[in-house]
Amino acid sequence: MLITRAFTKQLNSRKKIWARCLSSSNFRSDVVVCGGGLTGLSIAYHLAKRGASVHLFERGCIGSAGASAMCNGVMTAPCFWWDSGTHKIVENSLKLYERLSQDYSIQLTKCGRVYLGETDSTVNTINRMYSRAKIWNDSAELIEDPLDISSRWPMVNADDVKLAFYSPDDLSLDPIALCHAFKNECLKMGAQIFENTAVKYVLIGEGQRVYAVETDAGLIETKNFVNSAGIWANMIPVKNLINSTIRVAIHPCTYTYLSTEKLPQTGINETTPIFVDMDNSLLLRATDYGTTCSGFQEPSISSLGFPQEAVGWIVPPVDWDKFYPVLHALLHRFPSLGQCTRTDLISSAEAYTPDGYPIVGESEQARGYFVANGMNGRGLPLSGGVGELLANWILDGFSQIDISKVDATRFIDMHLNMHYLHERCPEVASNTFKPFHYSHQCHTARNLRMCPIYYKLRDAGAVFGEIMGYERPLWFKINSTGTRSSLHSGLDFLAKKSEWFPCVAREYEACRERVGLIDMSSFSKFEVKGPDALKFLQRLCSANVDQKVGSTIYTGMQNERGGYVTDCTMSRLADDHYFIVAPTIQQLRCMIWMKRWVETWKMHVDLQDVTSLYTALNVVGPSSRYLMQDVTGKSMSSTDFPTFQCRIIDIGYATGIRAISITHCGELGWVIYIPNEMAQHVYEKIIESGQEYGLLHAGYYTLRHVRLEKFYVYWGQDIDASTTPVECGRTFRVDFKKDFLGKQALVKQMETGVTKRFVQLLVDRLDMENDPWPQGSEIIYRDGKMVGWTTSAAYGFTLGCPVCIGYIENEDFGVSPEFLNTGFYEIDIANRRFPVRVNLHSPSLPMISSEHPIHYRPTQ
Question: What residue stretches are annotated with the FAD dependent oxidoreductase central domain (predicted)?
Fold first, then answer.
């Protein structure tokens, strides 16, 4: 009791001193950071390094609580991640930690990691990781013989292991010592760190902008606040905000690990590698002073449910019954664990997101309110690089690294629902030791957003995948039964023909030779109206949108550096009224971007998100013109309804349907936007009339296969905010005669040339029955040297080979046509190299429709 009173007295005295400091000369700050874990400290470090004044507040002591304090100190190498953006973040973390460990004598051991796989799917994943690892370290190694695995590491039972991968760049370090190193660096550079001092609330003022933060030590004025409070991120009150807090799409789940004595095998020391059983989600770290092991099997993971008003989250006590299945799996893989007698089961909680990527960036709810949370159990490898990314973002207004996968605005309100997060996040946590690919489908929290014809599509054989909570058909099963599961989950194996391949081949044939029907309701849709609508969009878009009423324009919205904020179609419905269709994942991002410039330029424009008001059906194929004529009773000839036009049409009894003569894949056709209450009627009319033309339902996989053959890029996979029209061959869409955002950057690129260029790659000598298939994120080689990455892939049914889109880079001399058209190119698919042919422009594919041999080609 005396100790407690003394500590309280000391703490109150310290708070008074801090309050005096804040109320005198140091009451302003460039940035206030809430949270003294690895992420918050890294952000403060990088801000202070660039000369910003920083105040960091931690409600406890640095390194004493939260996920950073409970971190097992295992650092995952960059090769674990599929995408190049996360690669760069983790690379930056590694470089930073190695430097800090030298300056502060932090215990850092380059022990490496051994990934174990027992299924064909995991073997395929391991081979892809190895392909990435060997680029940076020749010591990366694959071991196929189980006897060899057990002889090198006797603690491993490798009887059922098909392949092991030794990653030499994984390491172990002391996370608490790293926290204190960050703290010391921050203090040396002038940052102020307040421990045992909580943030009480954030104040939002005019223009929904942060202007101050109230803390236990007093009020501090600032224009920038960073929420890196971990699992407590959603508990920071915000004044003058309707919900009194800014919600972040994270939810805490428990993780449990077992700490025990040294394993009985000889030769175990600090350099003994970390072991990960990928199929069973197990980890073991053995040293000469003890052993730590854990498992992330979904049944063993508990969501923390809902916070209590007074105390917030309560981490439940350890539960041996829940841990027992994990322990059983650990004893199978590492039998000598059973000889250890002294054990300690430890439980804590970590913040997880709906898609397994962290949340970084500025909130759409308040300007100057930044978020860096949801590290998904990978805080150590990500925190260093995330800190640099966000610090640059705050100070420069943008990031040099592609942030599309981690951007806070990739989530919409539905992702903030507590019940949704409660169900989804334990599944995400169960994939802690498995790399997420963009095509991965979760099995939890599904059937949330469904178009009005969802059940019609399901009965027609649809297999649904989820994007932004929206269920859209990926493919349609042949001769499906009513009892089948209609929700696809997991990751496609893609090392031989998948179950969907014959289905997609059938759908592709219909779209290219007859007519197909594709549900595209998930795409983001916006309306821009008002007296300044034209003036606003002309400045915002790189294409000339001042076209006749009834015209549709493909255009990019570029940022100040010329990169794509979005790639969209824009239909002019009236002089002052435009209808915009953008990728599904940009529903919030695109709206935020437009609102920002409406306010900045003080335009008289009304913006409305109408995504959920319309069902969108893509009628595609050479017979689409005849089908559309049948259901509308109007002429749809190339003269009466040419390509890139928009009309308001009737189908059956339904009115007010917006028909746009584009298909997003280069085939003849229309996308029709139907008011939801009329969608079922219109759908039935199309299906009825389509029987005459051999109409088939088609899914999003078919759309992908068709578009990739014609070199259509997709925002978020192929292009992003770091890609310009010059780099992806779309400058012909840009109108350099007018002023628009990003024009100067594009003009400079046109004058000086670029060092990166997007190309289409045709893969040769690949056996579709036995070889691994490209999935995107494969490394591209030119004359044996790495020159880039693929971004997406599909099978080209007309071209007769797999087709990829990717970029080739040459920072030394640029990427001239001569450079791109010479040299021997290959891509590495799961540790197998295949020669590829490089196309700078769309190939001329044979078209069934006699009127469409000169179809739209997206690069020329």
Answer: 396-450
